Amino acid sequence: xxxxxxxxxxxxxxxxxxxxxxxxxxxxxxxxxxxxxxxxxxxxxxxxxxxxxxxxxxxxxxxxxxxxxxxxxxxxxxxxxxxxxxxxxxxxxxxxxxxxxxxxxxxxxxxxxxxxxxxxxxxxxxxxxxxxxxxxxxxxxxxxxxxxxxxxxxxxxxxxxxxxxxxxxxxxxxxxxxxxxxxxxxxxxxxxxxxxxxxxxxxxxxxxxxxxxxxxxxxxxxxxxxxxxxxxxxxxxxxxxxxxxxxxxxxxxxxxxxxxxxxxxxxxxxxxxxxxxxxxxxxxxxxxxxxxxxxxxxxxxxxxxxxxxxxxxxxxxxxxxxxxxxxxxxxxxxxxxxxxxxxxxxxxxxxxxxxxxxxxxxxxxxxxxxxxxxxxxxxxxxxxxxxxxxxxxxxxxxxxxxxxxxxxxxxxxxxxxxxxxxxxxxxxxxxxxxxxxxxxxxxxxxxxxxxxxxxxxxxxxxxxxxxxxxxxxxxxxxxxxxxxxxxxxxxxxxxxxxxxxxxxxxxxxxxxxxxxxxxxxxxxxxxxxxxxxxxxxxxxxxxxxxxxxxxxxxxxxxxxxxx
Length: 563
Fold this sequence. Notes:
This protein is mainly beta. The chain folds into four domains: 19-131; 140-209 and 401-434, no CATH class; 227-396, Galactose-binding domain-like (Jelly Rolls, Sandwich); 439-561, Jelly Rolls, CATH 2.60.120.260. The chain has two helices and 44 strands. The strands form nine sheets. Strands 1, 14, 15, 16, 17, 31, 32 and 33 form an eight-stranded antiparallel sheet that branches. The radius of gyration is 26 Å and the shape is globular.
């Protein structure tokens, strides 16, 4: 671990688990439509699939003028295919309703139903947010002045008469302990009271011993869970970022209009009461060299507070343009390299009923008049609780040890003003995972045992430590490892491409195929299987112009992510 001093060591506690959004859709039981004719449509917006991708503008025909007909069409023809789960239909106060749970954890926009060719009567539709979606949140337990971790292995005596007088042992039970001393801010939502409650209840907690996490953005990719992009913007993934990885995204306005954006939402807990600095990298592509920037805090009732911010260019080409109200403007981006933009709130984040902060960019010079020529590439977003911008920290490369533990002890010494000195210790109750990753699930990541461990299809081969995904005529060609994945769990796939001749690579996630980088080098991809199928399949991509594919791999690793 790259620790510079003791204050860089922190013990983090999971303060809120990741959870999906649950939405109750209520439709008037009888005649919710005006002048209804069978086959008229409604429009469903903000549909979130199991990967966190958002779909808008999906039309659905309705066969009868009743609440049950609308709900049946939703659950059977729309949301069932987007990995939603749902309760049985119920009746209350003249409405039929169903609770829908989306398949992705994290903050997502609320489902919306609007008129299509069919027109609802006033008040015929109600949508109630039963549970807001949120990402798993780790917060430091106070502000540590020191932290320590110890890992132990008990030895089991196996000495026999054949040991020739020497004691012999084998490794036995393993355990770990963590402790921290901290200066605690009594106004902070996480700290002594939380630890005392854990100690009294006797429940285990999730703890993480880590380098200091500066970047609150949960992913290195600028898409997926936590990211929101309406259907009017096309997201092209796996573009090269400023650090030579493939985590950037190209954003293209698909239809002309206003408010075509790309957004990340940060839960309010870790940033409340603090100033926030947001940095991101952006680059011109095509003819568009401008973008707009907006930061605002959302309330539980759906209203917004537009945070006053300062904006500046940290590095690269570009200049600050004339703002449009609360929306800031940047012009003069270059195709030659990335520009790093810094946005800082002018005051601490505080207010009534805030539930999250939204960070949004709009391709183009004017977010109110965007065209299909407006395209940019963005990468490496960072949100930190400071008024200064630090170097970019990849959130997937922060060294840590993580596991479940009991709170052993908590001690508090009264301090001056609003501070106290706080100490706590934890004893592990489970395995300790390094960097939040579990065991290697591929028994042969270097292809040493070849077809004794792996399977192939088509023209693909595995020999002498090399897996070659080969297709000379466009047929199915793949390598695969059976029965290693679990539906809806998150995994880290790391692989090395040793030779590239032509074609692209896909991984199969249930019924869907996702393109992954195929250039020579080592790549890391995070994914979540979206169907009960449990095989890892790496295959020839089916979208390239040429049918020929010839790509060699020398390493494939898969580990479950426990963050």
